[in-house]
Write a structure and sequence with these properties.
The chain is of the alpha+beta class and about 90 residues long. It contains three helices and four strands; from the N terminus they run E-H-H-E-E-E-H. The chain is globular and about 30 Å long. Bound molecules: zinc ion (2 copies). The site of one zinc ion (ZN) has 8 residues, from loops.
Length: about 90
């Protein structure tokens, strides 16, 4: 991974410009997205769960997400998300 995760920059392209998006599929698929907010990178389209505490990028979310890829803590403020913690890797419900 070339870009370090800091909760501010996109880990895929390094961009720092994001907009809030609504993704029904991801809401249905990931419980922590259903209860949270999603932001998309304006540069490359990568999507992130927004940290409820600091508004930073909590963890990247994509359709083939694996449990080991998910941040257990916000890289920016260190907050934990109970819904992320509870996620067992089952994507399709
Ligand atoms: Zn990006
Ligand atoms: Zn945070």
């Amino acid at each position: 991974m070339s870009n370090q995760e800091d909760g501010v920059h996109c880990v895929v392209c390094g961009g720092d410009s994001f907009r809030v998006v609504n993704d029904e599929w991801m809401k249905r698929t990931f419980r922590f997205v259903e209860n949270g907010q999603l932001k998309m990178c304006n540069g490359c389209g990568a999507k992130y769960l927004v940290c409820e505490q600091c508004g930073g990028l909590f963890t990247r979310v994509h359709p083939a997400l694996e449990p080991w890829e998910v941040n257990q803590q916000c890289p920016k403020c260190g907050a934990e998300n109970p819904d992320v913690k509870a996620w067992d890797g089952v994507s399709a419900r």
